[in-house]
Amino acid sequence: MTAKLVLVGCGHMGRAMLSGWIGSGRIAPTEVVVVEPNEDLRAKAAALGCAAVAGTEGLPADIFPKIVVIAVKPQAIRDVLAGYARFGNGATTFVSIAAGTSVATFESILGEKTPVIRCMPNLPAAIGKGMMVVFANGHVSDKARDFVAGLLAASGEVASVDDERLMDAVTAVSGSGPGYVFHFIEALIAAARTAGLPAETAARLAVQTVYGAATMAATSSEEPGVLRQQVTSHKGTTAAGLDVLMGDEALTRLITETVDAARRRSIELGS
Ligand SMILES: NC(=O)C1=CN([C@@H]2O[C@H](COP(=O)(O)OP(=O)(O)OC[C@H]3O[C@@H](n4cnc5c(N)ncnc54)[C@H](O)[C@@H]3O)[C@@H](O)[C@H]2O)C=CC1
Ligand SMILES: O=C(O)[C@@H]1CCC=N1
């Protein structure tokens, strides 16, 4: 069977990436088989034009995929992987987006010569604005690495690390990061409401402000600290607000604790 790619798990992140790959034309839907036990999610994969099956028993007996993408929860990985051991130690490259789960875990279940790429994406991949960070073991061929990098580029920016241990920090910063930013938006909306703005206006102002500031930080040649200073008039309103946020490094300390808690959880999930 000619399927190039098997996607195992078509939940939030799996689907976000799949729609980018197909939308960009980097892979044809007919080259993808999705394995997903949830019927509604299988229907969404089918709507993208992909074959969708409920479990490994639904895969064609003669399938020999180039890539198997594992997009299930880390807690399920060990059980799920066993079903794909027949593709291990060979020409199939496994790509895992699971938090914490090490390359060694994949090698121990699939065979120590299995090509494995760990990738930490983030949810904005759904709109082509993701941040994907990869780490590959020594069995991944240049051809497979290039193919996967091309696919990932459809979902946003791609970076790599040479030291697998850094994947826990990556997970805590860019993997979980959209969650922190969404919460910041929630907090700004709540504060806007407290300050008297109607709900719709509060949401509009908060979202557009974060969008505009993030876009400016991404496109400007100035550091974020310089941009912050450009907003801050001497003895003005921003200075009064930042006195609260930056006093005693309040936000920096909170974010450092936040990232550290997420990094430690990533390590726990991998053990
Ligand atoms: N949600 C996010 O923002 C990010 C998630 N990740 C990683 O992506 C992975 C998936 O996370 P989400 O998409 O958020 O979870 P999710 O729960 O939305 O998706 C997981 C999917 O796996 C399916 N599944 C369960 N058992 C299966 C099996 N035996 N075979 C095939 N599919 C099976 C579930 O039905 C579900 O649809 C996790 O390992 C997570 O660490 C990584 C970066 C960001
Ligand atoms: O919360 C999680 O564990 C996953 C990994 C990074 C984002 N979501």
From TrEMBL:
NADP(+) binds at A71, V72, K73, P74. Residues 164-269 form the Pyrroline-5-carboxylate reductase dimerisation domain. GO terms for biological process: L-proline biosynthetic process. Its EC number is 1.5.1.2. It catalyses: L-proline + NADP(+) = (S)-1-pyrroline-5-carboxylate + NADPH + 2 H(+); L-proline + NAD(+) = (S)-1-pyrroline-5-carboxylate + NADH + 2 H(+). Keywords: Amino-acid biosynthesis, Cytoplasm, NADP, Oxidoreductase, Proline biosynthesis. Residues 5-100 form the Pyrroline-5-carboxylate reductase catalytic N-terminal domain. One of its GO terms (cellular component) is cytoplasm. Pfam families: F420_oxidored, P5CR_dimer. It is an enzyme of class 1 (oxidoreductase). It is found in: Cytoplasm. One of its GO terms (molecular function) is pyrroline-5-carboxylate reductase activity. Its main location: cytoplasm. InterPro entries: 6-PGluconate_DH-like_C_sf, NAD(P)-bd_dom_sf, P5C_Rdtase_cat_N, P5CR_dimer, Pyrroline-COOH_reductase. Pathway: Amino-acid biosynthesis; L-proline biosynthesis; L-proline from L-glutamate 5-semialdehyde: step 1/1. Catalyzes the reduction of 1-pyrroline-5-carboxylate (PCA) to L-proline. Belongs to the pyrroline-5-carboxylate reductase family. This is Pyrroline-5-carboxylate reductase. It comes from Aquamicrobium lusatiense. The gene is proC.
